[in-house]
TrEMBL record:
Keywords: Ion channel, Ion transport, Membrane, Sodium, Sodium channel, Sodium transport, Transmembrane, Transmembrane helix, Transport. The keyword Membrane applies. Belongs to the amiloride-sensitive sodium channel (TC 1.A.6) family. PANTHER family: AMILORIDE-SENSITIVE SODIUM CHANNEL-RELATED, PICKPOCKET 17, ISOFORM A. Pfam families: ASC. The lineage of its organism: Eukaryota, Metazoa, Ecdysozoa, Arthropoda, Chelicerata. This is Amiloride-sensitive sodium channel subunit beta.
């Protein structure tokens, strides 16, 4: 075996869980790898429409754990174009967002992929989605429908209770706009990692639209940095590291209901053949007629 293969085997054998979740931090890809090898938009999304119109202004999101993700109807807080949020004018799925996605097993890396399928997140257009907490999984070969209900919670601050406003700078130096409690907690833990280990750990880094170079912790099981990181995790679990992250004063969420039926692949093959049919020299040809 090569030294790299031996190192990989050693890390897998050191795991104490059946799904090696406790050592997955060693396999988080670096930013350059995500950028160069993440699934391109055209390979993942075959068709995207919102009501009668094709999707526009797709924004690429770089996630340490999910690689390249793609956002529709994302405006952020500060946008140069002053882009308004797109709003469906009529009810029903034909007037909402429709996606046809292509997910193939041969495009995945087995050691980085527990699930085959895609992760869908419905989120506030102002905020970056948190896929690990708020997403739902869609299985390959399914035609899934998602209905949703908009929820808004407003909490009272002092003197009735404690909550954080959008953009408020907290004692741990976190300020989010919009403020998200779980993002505050991740920032707080990573800030402690940086204080002790002099680097930022990818496990607690947020997904970003514009990647920035940071001092990323070396994910190596034999390094002092990894032992330092584990000490922060241990202290966080036993309450030694405290994060001042109250609930948000204004919190937006979506209650999702999902149903699924089996996708009729013959329908899409017939449509693709019809739309790409050309005749040259008396011979008919179609584009990728058997492409799944």
């Amino acid at each position: 075996m090569s030294p790299e293969a031996m190192d990989l085997l050693k890390k897998l054998k050191s795991s104490t869980t059946d799904d090696v979740r406790d050592v997955e931090r060693f396999f988080i890809p670096e930013l350059d790898i995500v950028n160069n090898y993440g699934m391109p938009y055209d390979n993942l999304i075959l068709s995207c429409s919102y009501g009668p119109d094709a999707c526009t202004d797709i924004v690429t999101l770089y996630s340490p754990t999910y690689g390249k993700c793609y956002m529709f109807n994302y405006i952020g807080i500060f946008n140069d174009k002053d882009t308004p949020v797109k709003i469906a004018k009529q009810p029903g799925r034909t007037h909402g967002l429709q996606l046809y996605l292509q997910v193939r097993k041969e495009d995945t890396l087995p050691l980085l992929t527990r699930d085959l399928g895609v992760r869908i997140v419905v989120h506030d257009p102002r905020s970056i989605p948190i896929a690990a907490e708020n997403g739902i999984d869609i299985r390959p070969g399914d035609m899934a429908s998602i209905s949703m209900e908009y929820l808004e919670m407003n909490r009272l601050g002092q003197p009735w209770g404690t909550c954080a406003e959008d953009g408020q700078v907290l004692a741990n130096n976190y300020s989010g706009n919009p403020y998200i409690q779980s993002e505050c907690e991740s920032f707080c833990i990573n800030q402690e990692v940086f204080k002790r280990c002099h680097c930022w750990h990818p496990r607690y880094l947020s997904a970003v639209v514009t990647p920035k170079r940071k001092a990323i912790c070396a994910t190596n099981s034999t390094s002092a940095v990894d032992r330092c990181f584990l000490s922060v995790v241990h202290d966080t679990d036993n309450g030694t590291v405290e994060c001042n992250c109250p609930p948000a004063c204004r919190e937006i969420g979506y209650q999702l209901t999902t149903s699924a039926s089996q996708l009729n692949q013959d329908f899409f093959r017939i449509v693709k053949k019809a739309k790409t049919l050309t005749t040259k020299g008396g011979k008919a040809s179609v584009t990728n007629s058997d492409f799944e």
